Amino acid sequence: MLSNRATDTEKRKSLHGHWSSRMAFILAVTGSAVGLGNIWKFPYVAGQNGGGAFVLVYLLCVAIIGMPVMMSEILIGRRGRRNPIATMALLGEEEGKSRHWQWVGGMGVIGGILILSYYSVIGGWTLSYVFKSVAGTFSGAGAADVTAARDSFLGNWLAIGSFHTVFMLLTVFVVARGVERGLEQAVRFMVPALLLLMLVLLGYSINSGYFGEGLAFMFTPDFSKLTWDSVLAAMGQAFFTLSIGMGSVMAYGAYLPEETSITKSSAAVAMADTSIAILAGLVIFPLVFANGLDPADGPGLVFITLPLAFGQMSGGVFFSTIFFILLSFAAWTSAISLMEPAVAWVVEHRHKSRELAAMTIGLIIWVLGVGTVLSFNVLSEFKFLKGTIFENLDHLTINIMLPLGGLLIAVFAGWVLCRNSTADELRYAGTAFKLWRVLVRYVAPIGILFVFLKSVGLLPDLS
Asked: Which domain range does residue 160 map to?
């Protein structure tokens, strides 16, 4: 039976094509992983949780939790060669278990749709700041002016909705063109461009006169700030920054050529993702310190603190424009990956053209996104459960659906897929394979479970 299954897998082909090379796959998954959270969340969380001490814990969590689960999701995708829902059903049945594992794939697909519904609104917000930067809105502006510009934008549902629409159209355009003509061409341009823009800004930060302060804030180990909550924060950051649990990596894995090493590709993505997050900190914090601003502003760093900093610097219009183009690219590459699993399902299950599937899913996401658009203005007082519509979507997806999805993917790869199936995809055996099995069967699930319990408030304060 095992030999027949291996033969079937070798013959199985993706209906959507394949990545043309290992590098194309790495760029695609890196683009999926690198999002708005990398640009502001990682530097901020690192600085507030012990700097270098947090970074060390984060890197350890990437190695023992993030990497094994990412490898699992890729190997499941490549073995099934279908959309996440069909892949989980197919492999569950092949292993003599149950087709009901398809619900795990379904949760990832739905999670991606829900996340993109509000992520598109934030992506549109970053696009609007590109235009504000070009127009010189932040030049010489004080804190009150920058705050007023943000509040004015958020209060205008038509403006937010318009940029949300533009962002979704851009995303639909890329996904509709397919794997090689759409996804691959987009990431081949945007990911290197993102890195280039980051390096340009890094050059400015190095010459700001405060690069040393930024470096110390990010990397000086302060173990007094490293609590158990900090460890859980590092674990959660390692898990979420790699786009695990939402079907994107599994869908991209379905297009991975047989000869490509899953282990090497996963390691390359993890290193690229982490490097960009660290670069973001080295760009942001010297600018913050150079302008006497508060590095503890967290999310406010992007839309208030940094525009204020750019407004006071020489060449601020140029560098502000570059920064928000960078943010827009980061959001766009992530959005493409969030839409792909649902589009792949429509193409395969409903037998629709990719263009029609992309437009249909895009329209559904756009409509759902209207709720988030209105959460900042017209419906800002309409609150239930965790708050506004936006806050409920964010809590449901990030705190519940993604951790559960990642946990069940680890369980599926470690306990449902037989040793022969996983060894066949990973292309290795012996000590290395045993290590991966231990990590994905025991270490990763326990770590993810702790993050999940903490995020939903079921874990007591461990400080």
From this structure: 2-455
